[in-house]
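Inverse folding, one chain.
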């Protein structure tokens, strides 16, 4: 094989590899969806968001319905305020609830929305009132250990 042909093939493989790495990086970073779908914004306050990050999925019944747009700290309530962009085609009743959930045992965290029963629907700028914060594994373990230690000190 001629040297210039070999250089051409090597160059093509390098370009293809860089393209594959770019696509992989976008998917891992939850930036794979460039969609210009119309959205509306909701917010929810949590006492603990765990490792939730901007661009994390917002799911309902296992279906991705939006993304976390931003996370701020409310100095008045001492709570995390999570702002979410929800695709306009997904509507939720005003009494819906939001929870910080974990994919798998130690996977990435996301927001789960469970629909309520009201007839009135949430609109742009509304806040979800019913929230459940992230379950922090370290906190559960320390509570378990504290309870076991307290049981051990009391003879039966």
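Residues assigned per position:
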């Amino acid at each position: 094989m001629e040297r210039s042909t070999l250089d051409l093939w090597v160059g093509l493989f390098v370009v293809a590899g860089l393209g594959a790495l770019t696509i992989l990086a976008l998917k891992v970073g939850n930036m794979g969806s460039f969609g210009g779908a119309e959205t509306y914004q909701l917010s929810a306050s949590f006492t603990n968001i765990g490792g939730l990050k901007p661009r994390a999925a917002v799911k309902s019944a296992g279906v991705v319905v939006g993304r976390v747009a931003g996370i701020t700290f409310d100095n008045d309530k001492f709570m995390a305020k999570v702002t979410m962009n929800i695709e306009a085609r997904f509507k939720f009743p005003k009494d819906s609830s939001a929870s910080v959930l974990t994919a798998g045992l130690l996977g990435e965290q996301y927001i789960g929305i469970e629909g309520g029963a009201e007839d009135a629907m949430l609109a742009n700028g509304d806040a979800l009132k019913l929230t459940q914060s992230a379950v922090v594994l370290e906190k559960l373990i320390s509570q378990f250990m504290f309870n076991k230690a307290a049981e051990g000190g009391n003879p039966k």
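The CA atoms of residues 52 and 109 lie 5 Å apart. The chain has a mean pLDDT of 88.
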